Each structure stands twice: as structure tokens, then as C-alpha cells.
Amino acid sequence: MSKTALITGITGQDGSYLAELLLDQGYEVHGMVRRSHASIFSLVDKLKPGECYHLAAQSFVNYSFEDAFSTFDTNINGTLHLLSSIKDRSPGTRFYFAATSEMFGKSSETPQRESTPFHPRSPYGISKVTGFDVVRNFRESYNLFACSGILFNHESPRRGFEFVTRKITSSVARIKAGLQQTVALGNLEPRRDWGFAGDYVRAMKLMLEQQEPDDYVVATGETHSVRDFAELAFARVGLDWKDHVVIDERFYRPAEVAVLQGDSSKARKKLGWTPTVNFKQLVEMMVDADMAGLAEGRFR
Ligand code: GDD
């Protein structure tokens, strides 16, 4: 297989970790950032990459409630265009789609596994269910090597500031430095299965190395509330979260996903994948990085 990879969304958290992993393995890595549908076609035609990782998306759940149309267009049509280009111009390309635990939504079982029915609770979740269906349909109709990774929440010091984990850890650093007193959050009750993004990109690569294309849940198997995350993050710098977290209902969602907890037995067994960072280590890694980043002036 050609050691050329194309990553859409390469400037995002996952794209950056994945690019590093592939470069370490001797790949020639090409990245795409917000390209038009026409240019996708000519790029796939020209590159004919051995692997294509489709990570680009409108991935912020809150925003998807405000603009469902653009979320659908980016996440559904964007995926369809890329897959169509591969089918027509480079059918040997192995394709990875960034599916998500958000597809389970109001789930009928916990933990969630590959066979758990989807019940998305946001336009973002709906768009990813449709993307997942498109990928499976191209696999079944055109015999493409197309996989979906159903990744549970994965975080890191490179996480965007709009997601709750980074919002909390960056605020902890600013509060500790005396630059602000409080952080306003929404619902503290939802539970998520939070892992480390650096671990999760390894699973993406492993999926494309298998004999057959398939879909896999990637998760730690642990679940914690937003409150748990805040408590640990503030405790890391010797502060009590109750003194600094205020609730602002503007951050509540019209429909919430209450509990996500993944059963990644299939990925562990078939891919030989295991996460290396647990919840406490993840929180501490992010707080420590933000404390250092603030001290070094990398963010304000
Ligand atoms: N963003 C945000 N901001 N979320 C908050 C806040 C806040 O101020 N306060 C509470 N929350 C709660 C949200 O309501 C949600 O239940 C939880 O914190 C996590 O929110 P996010 O960090 O925005 O992530 P997400 O779970 O909605 O979605 C992320 O994970 C998915 C995988 O399950 C995103 O990365 C998605 O793109 C990804 O697919």
C-alpha cells in the first residue's frame, strides 16, 4: 500500500496527532483545510492516497443547534463528496470516517457498543449518523475499504477552547493566576467517557491496517460527570471548584446526552488497541499544560 495519507481537518486536535503518528511511520502526509468540493475531487485524483482520514467536520454540538443546515452540509455532503471522489478516482484508497459516540445520544443501553441502536439528540449527532450510513453504504455497494471509528470524547492540551474540558482547564489556569474569578458552565450532570486524543488516533490507523473494513467503538470504558472533571481540575491547583464555577443556562442544550460510556472490547480484541491515559491523568495533563501555556504567554 502506498505510504501516502490524506487527512481532512489536519489542523484540528485529532488531525495534528494523527499527522505526527503517520510522519513518524514514514508516511508522506497531505492535509486539507476547508477545501471546496471540486478541489477534493482533483486532489484525490492527483494523489491517489493509500489512506484517507476524513476528520473535517462541524464538530461543536452547541453550534449545530444554531445552524443545522451548515452542519448537515459540511458533515453529510462533505463526506459524500470525498467518498464519491475515492470511488471514481482512487477506489484502492482505504478510508476512515470520524463517527462519534454522539450518535448513541439517548441510548437504550450502557455501555454502548457497535450494536447499540443510535438515537441522536443534536443536529450534529444526526449528521454523523447519516455520514456513518453513507460510509457503510459505499462499503457495501462499491466494495470500498471504508471504516467508521465510533470515538467517544477524546481530549488533550490541543483541544479547542469551546469544548467543556478545555474551557475548564484554561479557566483553572487563569483563575489560579488571578486573571479571572469564575467560569460559567452549563449542565454539570452529563457523564462522558473521556480519553486522550493521542491514544485515539492510534486506533484510526489500526482500523485501516486490518484485512477487512469494519466499524469500531473506541473508548476508555470509564464515565465521569462534567462536575467530576471540574472538581479534579480545580483540585490540581489546590482550589475548590465550588468557589469558582457558576451556572449559566445559556450553555444548556435543547436536548442533552445524559450518559456516554463505551464498550471497546471489539477494538481491544481485533485491533489490539488499549488506551494509555486514564481520566485523572488526562485532567492533570490538560491543567498542567494550560498552567505552563499561560505562564509562557501561549494563550491569555
Ligand atoms: N461545550 C460546553 N460548554 N459544554 C458544557 C458546558 C459548557 O460551558 N457546560 C456543561 N457542558 C456539558 C455539555 O452539555 C455536554 O454534556 C458535556 O459538557 C460535553 O460537552 P462538549 O465538551 O462540548 O462535548 P460533547 O460531548 O458535546 O461533544 C464532543 O464529543 C463528541 C463525542 O461524543 C465533541 O468533540 C464532538 O465533536 C464529539 O463527536
Assess the beta-strand content as a share of residues. 15-25%
Strand order of the largest sheet: 2-1-3-4-5-10
Number of strands: 12
Taking all Cα atoms into account, the compactness measure Rg is: 19 Å
String of helices and strands: EHEHEHHEHEEHEEEHEEHEHH
Number of helices: 10
Q: Please state the overall shape, judged from the principal axes of the Cα atoms.
A: globular
User: Which range best describes the helical content: under 10%, 10-25%, 25-40%, 40-55%, 55-70% or over 70%?
Assistant: 40-55%
Bound molecules: guanosine-5'-diphosphate-alpha-D-mannose
- The secondary-structure class comes to alpha/beta
The stretches of 5 or more residues where confidence is low (pLDDT under 50) are none
End-to-end gap: 45 Å
- Characterize the main sheet: 6 strands, parallel
**Average pLDDT:** 97
Q: Any key phrases for this structure?
A:
binds guanosine-5'-diphosphate-alpha-D-mannose, alpha/beta, 10 helices, two-stranded parallel sheet, 300 residues, six-stranded parallel sheet, 15% strand, 43% helix
Q: What does this protein structure show overall?
A:
The protein is α/β, with parallel strands linked by helices. It is built from ten helices and twelve strands. The strands form four sheets. Strands 2-1-3-4-5-10 form a six-stranded parallel sheet, sandwiched between helices. Strands 6-9 form a two-stranded parallel sheet. A two-stranded parallel sheet has the order 7-12. It is globular, with a radius of gyration of 19 Å. It starts with a strand and ends in a 5-residue tail after the last helix. The site of guanosine-5'-diphosphate-alpha-D-mannose has 23 residues, from α3 and α6.
